[in-house]
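Hi everyone,

Forwarding the result from last night's run.
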Amino acid sequence: MHYALLVLFVLIISSCGKEGIEDTVIIESENAITVEEELLIIINQHRSDEGFDTLSYSDIAYKYANEHTDYMIAMGDINHDNFSSRASNVSNEDNALAVSENVAKNYETAKIAFERWYSSEEHRNAIDGDFTHTAVSVKKDELGKLYFTQIFYKK
C-alpha cells in the first residue's frame, strides 16, 4: 500500500515536469522565513477550520523543499522536476506513506500564494489532503521574485 500511494502521487506530480538536473548550476538562496511561517499558519488554520488535522512541521520536508526551490530559481521557472527523487528521499528518511508538493512563483504574500493554490483543484487536494507533515520553502531570486515549494507527506 505504501508504494502504491507513493507511485500515485509521483505519477500525478511528475506529469507536471521533466526529470533531470545534471547540468544545472544551483546557488543556495536566502529563505523568506516570515513568508514561510505565515503560509504554514494560514494552511494549518484553514485545515483546522475545515475539520482536518493540522500538519506537523518536518525538517526533512524543509530540506527537500529548499533544495527544490533553489533548483527552480536556477531554472527560472516553476516545475516538479525530480519529484520522484524527493518523494523517495522523504519516504526513506521518515517512513512517509504518501508525498505531494505544491510549487509557485511571483506571489507577493503568503496569503496570495494560499488563495491561488486553493483556487486550483490539484493544489487544493494537497492542502486538504490526508497528510500529517509539511514544510514550505520560500526564497527570492535575484530580481526579488518569490519562489515557493511546499512538500506534504503522510506518516
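The chain has a mean pLDDT of 88.

Cheers,
N.
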